[in-house]
Amino acid sequence: MNELTKAEEQVMHYLWELKKAFLKEIVEKFPEPRPAYTTISTVVRVLVKKGFIKFNTFGKIRQYYPSISKEHYFKRHMNSMIANFFEGSKSKFAHFFTEDEDLNLTQLEEMKQLIEHKIKRLKENNE
């Protein structure tokens, strides 16, 4: 599955939020000044062709819905970023965040708790 352009990603975010929508409803989600209806229509057609969106037909009207969840896309996107920028190492990715000057103690503690919880679950599953 291909990566999304910024415009495609924006349409997908609206469609993930709406769950199912007609083109008019997707266009209405855009802030003013909205892109042209035909522009959004073209982006939606491309997303259908790429396999990110499917649709049901009601006469001449199509109701669109995502064929991939936001979580699945995000996970794939993050894995791709880790592969491209961190040599595929999730440890290097985590190290990048621990070195981030903007993280405060509370945020680091939250990350630590998430990691400890995951370790505990993995250990329980292996026993």
UniProtKB/TrEMBL annotation:
Q: Which UniProt keywords apply?
A: DNA-binding, Transcription, Transcription regulation
Give one GO biological process term: negative regulation of DNA-templated transcription
Q: Which InterPro entries match?
A: BlaI_family, WH-like_DNA-bd_sf, WH_DNA-bd_sf
One annotated GO molecular function: DNA binding
Q: Which Pfam families does the annotation name?
A: Penicillinase_R (PF03965)
Q: What is the lineage of its organism?
A: Bacteria, Pseudomonadati, Bacteroidota, Flavobacteriia, Flavobacteriales
The entry's protein name is: BlaI/MecI/CopY family transcriptional regulator
| Cleaved signal peptide residues | none
| Family stated for the protein in its record | Belongs to the BlaI transcriptional regulatory family.
Question: From which residue to which does any coiled coil extend?
Answer: none
For whether the record's keyword set contains Transcription, the answer is yes
Is the keyword Isomerase in the record?
A: no
Q: Which SUPFAM superfamilies match?
A: Winged helix' DNA-binding domain
